[in-house]
Amino acid sequence: MKERARILVVGGGYVGMYTALRLQRKLKPELGRGEAEITVVTPDPYMTYQPFLPEAAAGSISPRHVVVPLRRVLPHCRVVVGEVTAVNHAKRTATLTTLATDEEGTGPEQLTYDEIVLAPGSVSRALPIPGLAEHAIGFKTVEEAIGLRNHVIEQLDIASSTRDPAIRDAALTFVFVGGGYAGVEALGELEDMARYTTRYYHNVKPEDMKWILVEASDRILPEVGPDLGRYTVSELRRRNIEVRLDTRLESCADRVAVLSDGARFPTRTVVWTAGVKPHPLLAATDLPRDERGRLKCTPELTIDGATHAWAAGDAAAVPDVTAAEPGANTAPNAQHAVRQAEVLAENIVRSLHGEPLRTYSHKYVGSVASLGLHKGVAHVYGRKLKGYPAWFMHRAYHLSRVPTFNRKARVLAEWTLAGLFKREIVSLGSLEHPRAEFELAAGGKPSDESSDDPKGSS
Ligand SMILES: Cc1cc2nc3c(=O)[nH]c(=O)nc-3n(C[C@H](O)[C@H](O)[C@H](O)COP(=O)(O)OP(=O)(O)OC[C@H]3O[C@@H](n4cnc5c(N)ncnc54)[C@H](O)[C@@H]3O)c2cc1C
């Protein structure tokens, strides 16, 4: 091993956190002797367990328990809250901005490294649809999930108090675009929560609400296979949710969702979950990318043609060595991200010790999806489950996967308490504007963010 290895991990999500966790364990002696140093750069000081976002939106899990504090689980790493904005791998430098660099006005910092792990994940793949950027919201972060929960409950309050039928209709219409598991689970959980919540309103009934899923292809939930995809469509329709297949959103300007089949829905809620694309940071590196913008990787998780550069997860095109057809890459999901991180960390250690690298090989075992409380679909190890058993499997699987014993215990406690007491139905949207009341009292102008915009406040 060389005298000192400075390892830079870009991203604190699945790949970033699991890579750093394994590296700090495997390199413990070297870290102790000052022969290795691990720096994790990430915009938030926590890792988000994204499969729990729909349950957080439904109020079944507190937002705090969906995230893992990186400083606590990575005590032997240097965690820097900031963003890498460019990488010059030829010079082994990364450009970094932090809250302090912004405040000091000194411009970005340069960070020098010996090994780099690029794991910034993906971002929502938005299209140039009129009104989308102004009115829609994504579903990738805990802030979006909780913002959406508050927004949905607030729409019930608006519908309950308005005398204008047009405002009421728009408030009670919820449009979700994209039938992958993020969109289907988010819609399934939120509709279930809203349906339950209406029992506490004297003048809003479940049948007054309109929930619409718009999907451009002819199927939803491809992750669970065609049979369970069809079952999910019929299950959602049974719940009065409109599932519009082979349909696209064409506009959501002026708060009207216009679909390619000619339908028009005045609405204050458009949730965009129509796929992801690799993080734009990757375009600001001198590393090779494939035609979809992902870093080209080898099965050992090195970046093709570069030395001392590694990648995995949503940002990487990793050859799927288990696939029958040649040229296939592993799918962008947590199942691969976690396992790739383990191999990646091990390979960095092996490379530092001059040992041969391991090949990443994992055959996708299937998926579980929740469609609301006690409802779900699962296709795992060839077995297909529906309804309560699938939902139970979904919970058991994710409880076993959520990082740290601390989080497992807290999530389990919340589920247990939720089983004993009634569901939480309160919107705490005002938490997003803690100064509003004081601003008003002090004679200042209240913040002008529109309260019916799921991206703004609510
Ligand atoms: C709602 C939802 C539900 C999902 N459910 C499932 C599921 O049930 N099963 C499943 O297998 N997969 C699921 N996924 C997909 C899974 O979460 C992703 O595939 C996985 O998170 C990818 O891991 P990653 O490390 O590549 O990216 P991420 O986990 O997204 O991590 C990327 C990290 O990089 C950070 N970052 C971004 N920009 C920068 C920058 N400039 N500098 C430094 N750091 C940066 C981000 O803040 C983040 O911490 C779901 C995703 C969503 C959105």
Quickly list its features:
FAD/NAD(P)-binding domain; alpha/beta; binds flavin-adenine dinucleotide; seven-stranded mixed sheet; 458 residues
**Any idea what the shape is?**
globular
Q: For the record, what CATH class of the largest domain applies?
A: Alpha Beta
**Main sheet strand line-up:** 7-6-5-2-1-8-19
Spatial separation of the terminal alpha carbons: 54 Å
Work out the oligomeric state of the chains in this entry: single chain
How many strand units?
23
Helical segment tally? 14
Q: Proportion of β residues?
A: 15-25%
SSE inventory with pairings:
Layout: E1 5-10, H1 14-26, H2 28-32, E2 36-42, E3 46-48, H3 53-58, E4 67-69, H4 70-73, E5 78-88, E6 93-98, H5 99-104, E7 109-112, E8 115-118, E9 122-124, H6 132-135, H7 142-161, H8 165-171, E10 173-177, H9 181-197, E11 210-214, H10 226-238, E12 242-244, E13 249-251, E14 256-259, E15 264-266, E16 269-272, E17 276-278, E18 295-296, E19 309-311, E20 316-317, H11 334-352, E21 366-372, E22 375-380, E23 383-386, H12 387-401, H13 405-420, H14 436-441
Parallel strand pairs: 1-2, 1-8, 2-5, 8-19, 10-11, 10-16, 11-12, 18-20
Antiparallel strand pairs: 3-4, 5-6, 6-7, 9-17, 13-14, 14-15, 21-22, 22-23
Residues 10-16, 41-44, 50-51, 53, 83-84, 119-121, 139-140, 181-182, 279, 281, 313-315, 332-335, 337 line the site of flavin-adenine dinucleotide.
